[in-house]
């Protein structure tokens, strides 16, 4: 080693006073000469680097520089010597360097420079304070804050885990961090570990913890290292990984939920301080995994039926979409199951008993369909089973087995109940290629089964179920038609049999669909009643008809009365009288100019709501007409009690009554009943003069039919009256 001049004696001092002070300093002190050689290395520096002064004095200072910066270090110093431009000199900053044993040490570096001696040679002096523990503690706290902030910001779990592992790898250079989640089955799921060698990934993926392993990890978290790493494994198969530190992760309840591990690429053995880093990260790791579990529970809550634990409708639709998105999707069957007994159980034994019944049946279905079949509850008493790669025979066998298990007695509150399932089956792609189409087909078949063969099963058939499909299509289109105001009204004149003048009109709904074309009332009215849309149609007709009467009158066309049809649904609501009164007031229409037509079945109902509504409507002053009189089973005693203002004889009784004595007798009897009760009689379906003459002879009050006019759009009513001026009614205000 060359003889080096001590810079501390070159200023003229002959003693080593300053050298002694620096030697005893608690911080490491290093001085290099103009050749970048180490000329001073105190005891604190020896402790920090883990090597003696004699081993470093006279050597280039890059011996102490981390390997990643060593190559360019001399160039940095030389640049400063020549230009005086610097980034580190006269500053303080954190640095990380490697001890002789391979450990990484965090320190605060303060660097200064001075010109020494008669030749003004530039020396550099560094003060280094070891702050590894403090730095790591602070950085771990900062990391934990970043993790919580990322979780609160709805960042994906894998992104948060990657961020944590990346920060830890900065704290322990030349390392690979990985966060592992322990599955309920004891397997390991890698949440983060992008730099892990594929062979190590495979090892971790295939590792399954035993009950004994889990118990040991809960008692001794550091045992995780022994489970995922052995020196033999590292030397023979993973030559780029040479050490490992790991810790088990438990949640607040003490349950084992994961493992956090740090693998080292350093060949030299490092001391155990990285284990402190791993241990310090455990709270952050636990937060990440618990957050993932919470999201999983929330996702399950959104996709699982809370009563039965089966998939719900949303999850089923998602799975079906995934199936249909697959190229070359094989045929599959959808079985829709309806529990026939549920409503009776709810009514007799209470809803808790109904829930027990549903839960039991759900468990039986799930047990039978365990495997690749999807099982879901749509709500109420409807379940769905999706059977992949199935044909009619396989679906038939499953439906038979489902019926068998449903008939086994179910004990509910001490009673043995025997349920049954009505099952409808549709096949993909034969019965549809869209999710709603296939599900709709199975529902059609199920409803058919429930109606005709309860407790059995039926396949959807395009021929046999075409009417059902038509009802579904029209029902859906009708809902849109109401929203887009596609319905319109026509008005058929009603003629006074005695004077031949107009005494009123009947408002009739019509529907011209943009693509389906004209849909007759005989088709869409029953569907509207089945789907609950008839109430909206009736109220719309009421409002539009009253408005039209006033508009006609403003154009010198007097229509004495407008008749509007109301269904049975309307009379279930106690709001009906107020709704009628509100419309009359809205258009300032006298109540006697409105007649509400009801069916014979509604008139014969004896429930309090219907009776109260009929009375309230008559008290307003609005007329009440019983439509299609004679087609049902009217009770004369009941008829006498009703507050009717008219009855309408059905057209079927006058179609051929001049040649059919029975029809004539019925028509005559109906007219006589009306006269005896003091109410008007209207006859529909008058199509030729002979019928008119006969009905006039029988004393019928009002005539209606194509003999006078077909139903007319509102704009054609003035033209019709101009064509037949004798029909024009005279307004009492004229």
Automatic annotation (TrEMBL):
Source organism: Acetobacter fabarum
Pfam families: EAL (PF00563), GGDEF (PF00990), PAS (PF00989)
All copies of domain GGDEF, residue ranges: 330-462
Domain PAS: 14-66
Domain EAL: 471-725
InterPro entries: Biofilm_reg_signaling (IPR052155), Diguanyl_cyclase/Pdiesterase (IPR012226), EAL_dom (IPR001633), EAL_sf (IPR035919), GGDEF_dom (IPR000160), Nucleotide_cyclase (IPR029787), PAS (IPR000014), PAS-like_dom_sf (IPR035965)
Protein name: C-di-GMP phosphodiesterase
GO biological process, one term: regulation of DNA-templated transcription
């Amino acid at each position: 080693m060359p003889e080096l001049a001590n810079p501390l004696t070159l200023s003229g001092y002959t003693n080593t006073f300053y050298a002694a002070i620096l030697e005893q300093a608690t911080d490491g002190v290093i001085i290099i000469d103009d050749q970048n050689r180490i000329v001073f290395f105190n005891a604190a520096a020896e402790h920090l680097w883990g090597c003696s002064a004699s081993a470093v004095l006279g050597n280039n200072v890059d011996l102490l520089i981390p390997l990643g910066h060593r190559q360019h270090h001399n160039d940095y110093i030389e640049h400063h010597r020549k230009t005086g431009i610097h980034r580190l000199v006269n500053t303080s900053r954190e640095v990380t360097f490697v001890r002789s044993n391979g450990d990484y040490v965090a320190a605060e570096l303060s660097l200064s420079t001075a010109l020494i001696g008669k030749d003004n040679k530039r020396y550099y002096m560094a003060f280094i304070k070891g702050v590894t523990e403090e730095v790591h503690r602070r950085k771990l706290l900062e990391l934990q804050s970043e993790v919580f902030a990322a979780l609160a910001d709805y960042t994906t779990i894998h992104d948060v885990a990657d961020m944590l592992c990346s920060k830890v790898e900065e704290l322990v250079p030349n390392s690979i961090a990985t966060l592992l989640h322990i599955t309920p089955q004891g397997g390991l799921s890698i949440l983060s570990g992008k730099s892990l060698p594929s062979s190590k990934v495979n090892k971790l993926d295939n590792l399954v913890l035993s009950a004994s392993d889990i118990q040991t990890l809960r008692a001794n978290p550091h045992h995780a290292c022994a489970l995922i790493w052995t020196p033999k494994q590292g030397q023979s198969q993973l030559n780029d990984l040479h050490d490992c530190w790991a810790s088990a992760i438990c949640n607040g309840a003490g349950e084992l939920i994961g493992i956090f591990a740090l693998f080292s690429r350093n060949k030299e053995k490092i001391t155990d301080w990285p284990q402190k880093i791993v241990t310090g990260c455990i709270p952050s790791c636990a937060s990440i995994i618990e957050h993932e579990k919470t999201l999983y529970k929330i996702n399950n809550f959104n996709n699982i039926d809370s009563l039965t634990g089966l998939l719900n409708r949303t999850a089923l639709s998602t799975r079906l979409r995934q199936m249909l998105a697959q190229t070359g999707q094989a045929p599959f069957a959808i079985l829709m199951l309806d529990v026939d007994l549920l409503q009776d159980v709810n009514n007799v034994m209470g809803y808790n008993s109904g829930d027990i019944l549903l839960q039991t049946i759900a468990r039986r279905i799930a047990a039978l369909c365990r495997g690749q079949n999807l099982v879901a509850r749509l709500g109420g008493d409807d379940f769905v089973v999706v059977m992949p790669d199935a044909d009619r025979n396989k679906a038939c066998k499953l439906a038979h087995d489902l019926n068998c298990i449903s008939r086994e007695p179910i004990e509910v509150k001490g009673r043995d109940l025997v349920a049954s399932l009505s099952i409808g089956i549709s096949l993909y792609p034969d019965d549809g290629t869209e999710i709603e189409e296939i599900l709709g087909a199975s529902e059609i078949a199920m409803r058919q089964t429930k109606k005709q063969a309860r407790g059995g099963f039926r396949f959807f058939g395009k021929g046999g179920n075409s009417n059902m499909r038509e009802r579904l299509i029209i029902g859906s289109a009708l809902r849109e038609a109401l929203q887009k105001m596609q319905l319109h009204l026509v008005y058929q004149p009603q003629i006074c049999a005695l004077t031949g003048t107009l005494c009123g009109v009947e408002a009739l709904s019509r529907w011209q669909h943009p693509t389906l074309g004209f849909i007759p009332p005989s088709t869409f009215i029953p569907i509207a009643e089945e789907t609950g849309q008839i109430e909206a149609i009736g109220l719309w007709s009421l409002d539009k008809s009253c408005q039209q009467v006033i508009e006609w009158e403003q154009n010198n066309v007097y229509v004495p009365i407008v008749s509007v049809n109301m269904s049975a649904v309307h009379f279930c609501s106690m709001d009906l009288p107020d709704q009628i009164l509100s419309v009359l007031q809205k258009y300032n229409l006298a109540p006697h100019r409105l007649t509400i037509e009801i069916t014979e079945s509604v008139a014969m109902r004896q429930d309090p709501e219907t009776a109260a509504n009929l009375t309230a409507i008559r008290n307003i002053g609005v007329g009440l007409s019983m439509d299609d009189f004679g087609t049902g089973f009217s009770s004369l005693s009941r008829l006498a009690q009703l507050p009717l203002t008219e009855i309408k004889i059905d057209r079927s009784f006058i179609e051929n009554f001049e040649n059919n004595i029975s029809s004539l007798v019925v028509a005559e009897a109906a007219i006589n009943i009306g006269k005896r009760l003091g109410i008007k009689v209207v006859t529909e379906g008058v199509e030729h003069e002979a019928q008119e003459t006969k009905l006039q002879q029988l004393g019928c009050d009002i005539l209606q039919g194509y003999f006078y006019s077909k139903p007319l759009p509102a704009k054609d009513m003035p033209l019709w009256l101009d064509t037949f001026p004798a029909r024009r009614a005279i307004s009492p205000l004229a």
